[in-house]
Sequence to fold (320 residues):
Amino acid sequence: MRKKNKNFTFNILSFFLSIFLVFFIIEIYVRTIVDDGSNLNLEMLKYAKSMKIISINKDIGLEHNKNVEKQLMGVQIKLNSQGFRNNIDIDNSKKTILMLGDSMTLGWGARKSFSSNLEEKINSNFQVLNAGIGNTNTYMQINNFFENYEKYDFDVIILNFFINDLEKVVIKEGNFIKKNIYSYTYLKTKINKILINFSLIDNWKNFYRKTFEDKEFVNKSLNQIKRLNDYCNKKNIMFVINNIPELRDLKNYKFLKETEIIRNFSNQNNIMFIDSFDILKNHQEETLMVSKEDAHSNDKAHLLIAEFLEKKLSSKLNSL
Fold:
């Protein structure tokens, strides 16, 4: 009987040891081979660990760390003392443009964001401040403004809207495995791709469309935009909404109806609306994306958006 118990215990220990060794080998493989600095999900994991913090205000969700710098997705990202992606802090001697948005605004995977490109192209009396934070939505971004940025003086505020910025985001503190085990992120990504192929979870098209179906949260987000617009009107700040399109399949764009919702809302509230789709649609999508796996805007796309914004805003900026 004792011998059987020993064999059973040995088999159990051997089983768990084998599982551990398998995952250990996968972890080594991911860290040495897969992690080449261009894997979207691994780089996003590093970004979350090194540059973002969970806000104590649930309506903000995520905030940037201050005075940090790290190479992510092959480019150097530097956050100043306000948490903006700018090399220097706010220059009070200049007029200021604040860019609100998510990772598309941050300039994920781009050496120069459209914020920095725009600053180079407009009147030298302006400073463009990039407050884009990855994995945030419009509701979080505007709450972050009133919590952390309202104390500064801005002449222009541009809310950069991406197709999933009406998504209801629930921020949770990740456990040790999610935050530190690269193989977990790698395997989860692979499993999700399989599930998408078998239509067990939504692909990106269906996911983006469904973000507009939660009417309660959509209205909650639109009310936040109204709140920011009212604030800008009261403070005599120029307020603009800039729509940034999903770059995949620009020739047969899937979200014209969703864009129209934001456009109509802007018109109804006398908010200037700029649609960067109008300039990007004229280019091949593969020339605008960071990589085949990463549909964020690359340096070419950021330059095109900046040139388009400069064209649309120049006369108004010169009058400020």
Notes: The CA atoms of residues 158 and 240 lie 5 Å apart. Strands lie at 52-54, 62-64, 68-72, 75-79, 95-100, 126-130, 156-162, 238-244, 272-275. The longest strand covers residues 156-162.
